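Section 5.1 Outputs to date
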Amino acid sequence: MTQTREAFEARLRRIGAERYHDKHPFHDMLHSGRCTPDQVRAWVINRYYYQHTIPMKDAAFMSRVEEPALRRAWRSRIEDHDGTAENEGGIERWLRLADAVGLDRDYVASRQGVLPATRFACDAYVRFVRDKTLLEAVASSLTELFAPAIHANRIEGLLAHYDFADDRSLSYFKRRLSEAPKDVAFGLKWVLDHADTQEKQDAAAAALEFKTDVLWAQLDALHSAYVAPARIPPGGWQPGTHLIRVAA
């Protein structure tokens, strides 16, 4: 039975309440100051791969959209990450965080040392958006519904517990506090407008669940590789390497 618009939105929000990666133990470690400097660096390296794939995902989506209005609305997402003449972009802000934790930014940008599971999860997200229906692709972006809270908690936790944290190094998260609500307002309305059958609602909900799995898998990989007993897979970044200075 097709749910009402209100009931379907509540269903989507429950997915975040139950499955969003803010509940992962690695995030608890990070936000409470219990990560070592090298664990923070591993997170920065691997999360960069995700940041790198987001505009590729959005470009893949736009290449399939025939409606100019939808392309115009979606285009800002690429600009938010890649940057414009007026906006340096989220990727550059993430590399600034890499500088702050003492990593060689060229190494981070090269995407060497990324864990296999991180790579597989992010690449799967790009393929999902490229190959699934437009409704499923948009619905998968709705983890942004839950992002502002985790960004706010992250800013507070990093500032409280790590010497590298300041307004400059955390500018990525601060900027997303204003960018994400704009994106999610559009995406949520679009999904609610177009998921007008039970089959479409079920597909949209499954797409959002898939995206929470993508985010969770990345933290599982970090926890397995860099939290005792650490098991860094071949090719994964080795602590103490590719540093430009010793971060506090």
